[in-house]
Design brief:
This protein has 393 residues and is α+β, with helices and mostly antiparallel strands. Helices cover 31% and strands 25% of the residues. The strands form six sheets. A six-stranded antiparallel beta barrel has the order 11-14-13-12-15-16. The two termini are 18 Å apart.
Length: 393
């Protein structure tokens, strides 16, 4: 939609071919329905390592302020929440409707319920677009069909990878990214789930693959939440390869070693007639405590006076490094984006295919993925605007 608007504003005659029966289906679901458009802390190192050198240039061409100005031109008022940019309405539907209104105003044709099957370069001036229903000819074609994430809800089935491969493009291996993880069946997890602030580190052998802090969600079969999704981009490949990756959870992330040691000393003074459950009542989230005691096979009714100091310390230390073995991710359906895709070495600075400048690839189809917080939508708008402008020249 962004590419179509920029191309049409530059005077091009534009047609959108849409697989769904409506525009912006995935966009309407982003940000828990609030639509985090971009982030004022916009840096290339918020994207996967393979894309950073290119992202620096692309963000220099069309960055966060450009996104804000673009939506202002559509009549969408935005606000900042600690640098995270949202529509003031708090509704993703507002953003989708504003884009649709501009598309209609510009006279862009929209064809619904047609699935792209192939794109062929006919000659130096024309491109053939083949769908499941008919054939089209155009001067330029922008392929913006998304990836594999959210396949059931958005019909993003990865068709674009096959189409681009047939054109001769190199496709990097794909993985679900910004996704949660399931734990090994042998791991004890709380039946009713737990939400709490924590630092989570993902460990392979002696190597820390990634570490993030924020609101963690522990469910009956796995872990999710913003810190897990942020770290998943650096972890997913090892999990997919069935490497022994562990999640280490620190439920006292704001305590350094010295302050936590002092906290333990204060707690150990409470070793008396009270039970283990009473001893830990105000120490941490009750669900976390239940999980730790069950994993250590300790009775909640055991008297603290009957537990050695070293064992009591071991219990408290468990809140600093609770280890869970990961079995797999929740998959593409639960992922927000897909890592991998069309190699960016195949495209130019304007997102045109190096071997046919009449064909463009943009958005999540490319091997570009960012952190949570508006970074992936920023790339959608960046690539859409640049390709839309370039294709209309």
């Amino acid at each position: 939609m962004c590419a179509a608007i920029y191309a049409a504003r530059n005077g091009a005659q534009v047609c959108i071919i849409e697989k769904n029966d409506c525009l912006g289906k995935k966009l309407s679901m982003t940000g828990n329905g609030r639509c985090n458009l971009t982030n004022l802390d916009m840096r290339e190192d918020c994207y996967n390592a393979a894309s950073r050198s290119r992202m620096r240039d692309w963000l220099g061409t069309y960055g966060a302020e450009d996104v804000i100005c673009f939506f202002k031109s559509l009549g969408v008022v935005v606000k900042s929440e600690d640098g995270y940019i949202y529509p003031v309405s708090g509704q993703a539907r507002t953003v989708v409707d504003a884009l649709k209104n501009e598309i209609e105003r510009l006279g862009v044709e929209v064809v619904f319920k047609e699935q792209l099957k192939a794109v062929n370069g006919l000659d130096n001036d024309h491109v053939e677009i083949i769908t499941d229903k008919k054939r089209y000819e155009a001067d330029k074609c922008i392929i913006a069909v998304g990836s594999l994430s959210g396949v059931k809800s958005t019909m993003s089935t990865g068709d674009g990878y096959y189409i681009c491969k047939k054109l001769g493009m190199n496709i990097k291996d794909t993985f679900p990214a910004l996704v949660g993880f399931k734990m090994d069946e042998g791991e004890y997890l709380p039946e009713n789930g737990v939400r709490c602030d924590a630092r989570i580190s993902f460990i392979l052998g002696s190597e820390v693959l990634a570490s993030e802090q924020g609101e963690l969600q522990i469910t009956s079969d796995g872990i999710s939440g913003i810190p897990v999704m942020q770290a998943s981009r650096d972890v997913i490949r090892f999990v997919q390869e069935k490497k022994p990756v562990y999640a280490s959870i620190d439920f006292f992330p704001d305590y350094d070693e010295e302050s936590f040691l002092a906290l333990k000393k204060d707690m150990l003074r409470l070793k008396d007639e009270r039970t283990v459950s009473q001893f830990l009542l105000g120490f941490a989230n009750q669900g976390v405590t239940d999980m730790i005691l069950s994993r250590m096979k300790l009775s909640k009714t055991m008297k603290m006076k009957n537990i050695s100091d070293s064992m009591a310390e071991c219990i408290l230390d468990s809140y600093r490094d609770l280890r869970l073995k990961i079995s797999e991710s929740y998959g593409y359906q639960a992922s927000q984006v897909t890592a991998g895709g069309v190699s960016i070495a195949e495209i130019g600075s304007d997102f045109s295919f190096n071997r046919n400048r009449n064909i463009y690839c943009i958005g999540e189809l490319l091997d570009v993925d960012g952190r949570c917080g508006g970074y992936n939508l920023q790339f959608a708008f960046t690539s859409g605007s640049i390709a839309g402008c370039a294709s209309s020249l």
